[in-house]
Amino acid sequence: MSALSIEFGALASWLSVITSMGTLIFVVITHRSGRNETRIAEVEGKVETKASKDHVSNLAAKIDVAEDKITRMQSHIEHMPDKDTTHRLELAIGELRTEMRGISEKVKPISAMADRIQEVLLEKVAR
């Protein structure tokens, strides 16, 4: 019987260790699953609030408005001159300035003559 009692003693200690390990594993698994269920519930709540149908339809309407504005801006930009055209315009304006300076110099004597003629006519009228 002593051999049988030794076997029961060893079996009892191993059974105790196995029971403790099983309890530990059960606690860890249930704790994690409870925490995961809480996280899943939080995510579902966020998804329901963030992706409500009204919210999505409001965002879709805003996107439509933005797309319309972008389309209008693109059509306006297409009609604007590009950089080469702008450069040619700048050069042409520079040439016009130069020509205007030349014409201004040529008109000064004519302006002086017109002033003298006006003075002579005013003198004749005053007499």
TrEMBL record:
<protein>
    <submittedName>
        <fullName>Uncharacterized protein YicC (UPF0701 family)</fullName>
    </submittedName>
</protein>
